[in-house]
Amino acid sequence: MALYSKFPTEELSKSPMGTYLIKRVSILVMVVALLSIRGADSRKARILESFEYMAISCREHSASITDFGGVGDGQTSNTKAFQSAIDQLSQYALDGGAQLYVPAGKWLTGSINLTSSHFTLYLHQDAVLLASQDETEYPVIKPLPSYGRGRDAPNGRFTSFIFGTNLTDVIVTGENGTIDGQGVVWWQNFHKGKLKYTRPYLIEIMFSTNIQISNLTLLNSPSWNVHPVYSSNILVQGITIIAPVTSPNTDGINPDSCTNTRIEDCYIVSGDDCVAIKSGWDEYGIAFGMPTKQLIIRRLTCISPYSATIALGSEMSGGIEDVRAEDITAVHTESGVRIKTAIGRGGYVKNVYVERMTMHTMKWVFWMTGNYGSHADKNYDPNALPVIQGINYRDMVAENVSMAARLEGISGDPFTGICISNVTIGMAAKAKKVPWTCTDVEGITSGVTPRPCDLLADQEPEKQTTCDFPVESLPIDMVEFKRCTYILK
Q1: From CA 100, how far away is CA 115, in angstroms rounded?
Q2: What is the pLDDT of residue 459?
C-alpha cells in the first residue's frame, strides 16, 4: 500500500499513460499484498476450489480422506484411513454433522462402516472407490432376521461394501463419482459353489431413517447394488448402475421392508431385476412382519435381458403395498413388470400402480408367477397363501414382444383386482401364437391390444375404464432439499 501512495493519482489520471500506470501499479500492489499474506502465515491452507450439491442436510464440518492418511493410487489399502476418518468425524454428529470428502483418485478399501448419524460421504467426479477383493476385509454378520439365512449360503453374510445400521440422516453422494465393486471374483466363487457366506452388497443401510443415496455410478457389484432394509424416508436419485447382463444377482435397487421411499432418475444395466421390491422370506418374513409400502419409482431406464424391469418379490412375506411407478423405459428386458410369489410365502402384494411405461424388445410385458418356489428351508407353512390384489397397469406401449402376458395365479388362491387399460403391444415377427396365457386370475382390461385372455376380458367401448393411479402425494415427495456449499482447503 505504501508503494501505491507514492504516486500522484489525480495528476496521472489526466493522461492515457497515467491511467495505464495507475492500473499497472494497482495490479502490482494486489500481487504484493497476496504474497505478503501468504508469507506472513504459511500455516493457513490455500483455498483450491469450492463445490455445491443438493441434499436433505448440509454439514457444519468437513474433512478429506487425505487428512487421515488416505492414498488414492489404486493399490494402497485405505480401510484403516476410512474407519479412522468416520470414527473421528462422529464427534460432530450432534454438532452440525460432518462430511467426509473423497477427492480424485482410486481409493482401494474394504468394507466402510458408517457408524455415525448426520454424516455425508461425498465423492469427487474423478474419485473411484475400489472394493477390496479380500474376503477378510468384509466382516461376517448374522443373516437378515426377515430371511432367516443368507441367500447364497445357509450361514451368515459378508458385510456390505458401504454399510450402516441404526442411523439417522445419512447421505452417500457425489459429482457422479464411482463405486466399483470389482465383483468378478465374487461371481466366479458363486458359480463354483465356493462361498461359505452370502456375498456383500454394494450399499446397504439397515434400521435407519432419512437416507439419501444420489449422483453416483455403481459398477460390478458382487451382488445387489443398493439395499435399504428395515428403513424409512429414503431417497435414491441419479444413480447409474452397470454390471454385465450375465452377472449373478446384480439387482439394481432393492427396497426391502421399507416405508416412504423414492427412486428416480436412475439408469440400470444389470444381470438381474433393475428394481426388486422385497419384504422377507417365508416364515421368517411373516414373523418379522415389516412390509414395504409407500414406494415411488419414476423416470427409470432399465436394460436386463434375463430379468424384470420392476419385480415384486419373490421374498414378499412381510407384504408389499402402495407402489407407484411412472415414466419407465425398458429396453431388451425379459419382462416389464413381474410379480413373483409361491405357496408358503404368505404376505400380500396389493395396490400396485404403473403408468406411462415404454418397452422395446421384451419376452413378456406382464408376468405374474404363483409357483416361484425357492424356499428358505423346509419349515415354511404350506397353508401360508399370498394375497395378490389391486394391480393396475395403464398407458403403456411395447414393441417387438414375444408374448404379451403370462399370468399364473395359485389354484384356490386367485390373483384378483387386476386392471390393465390403454396398452398397445406390438408383437415380434416370431412371437408366440397365443399372446396371453392366464390361469387363476381375475380382473378387467380396457383398450388393450392384442386381445387379452378371457379371464381379463376387454370391456366394450361403452364400458371402457381407466385403471387407478393415486393423485394424492406421499410424504417422501414433500422432502425439501438444501443447497450445500463447501470450500476445499
Answers
A1: 13
A2: 86
Quick check: helix, strand or coil at residue 10?
Answer: helix
Cell of 176: 457422479
Instruction: Give the confidence band of 48 by pLDDT, cuts at 50, 70, 90.
Output: low
The residue whose grid cell reads 500500500 is: 1
At a CB cut-off of 8 Å and minimum separation 6, what does 302 contact? 252, 268, 269, 274, 275, 309, 328, 329, 330, 331, 333
Asked whether the whole model's pTM tops 0.85, one would answer yes
Contact 304, 335 (CB under 8 A): no
CB-CB contact of 197 with 154 (8 Å): no
- For the chain, what is the radius of gyration of the CA atoms? 28
Q: How far apart are CA 352 and CA 339, in angstroms?
A: 10
State pLDDT tens for residues 175-185.
999 999 999 99
Supply φ then ψ for residue 478, to 5 degrees: -90, -5
- CA atoms within 13 A of residue 116's CA, in its CB half-sphere: 25
Q: What pLDDT, on a 0 to 100 scale, did the predictor assign at position 19?
A: 39
Question: What whole-number distance in Å separates Cα of residue 294 and Cα of residue 444?
Answer: 25
Nearest to 113 by CA among 80, 150, 91, 152: 80
Give start and end residues of each alpha helix (H) in 79-223.
79-89, 184-191
54-95: per-residue pLDDT in tens? 999 999 999 999 999 999 999 999 999 999 999 999 999 999
Residue from 56, 133, 155, 147 nearest 97 by CA:
56
**Residue 450 vs residue 487, higher pLDDT:** 450
Phi and psi dihedrals of 305, rounded to 5? -60, -20
What element of type H or E holds 11? helix 9-12
Q: Which three cell numbers stand for residue 259?
A: 416405508
Residues 6+ apart with CB under 8 A from 443: 391, 416, 417, 418, 419, 420, 455, 456
Distance separating alpha carbons of residues 97 and 82, to the nearest angstrom: 17
Of 232, 233, 234, which is closest to residue 213 (Cα–Cα)? 234
The reply to whether 381 belongs to the active site is no
**What is the number of other CB atoms lying within 10 angstroms of the CB of residue 49?**
8
Helix, strand, or coil (residue 320): strand
Catalytic residue among 272, 273, 395, 458: 272
CB atoms within 10 A of CB 429: 5
Strand partners for 12: none
Length of the chain: 489
Cβ atoms 230, 251 nearer than 8 A: no
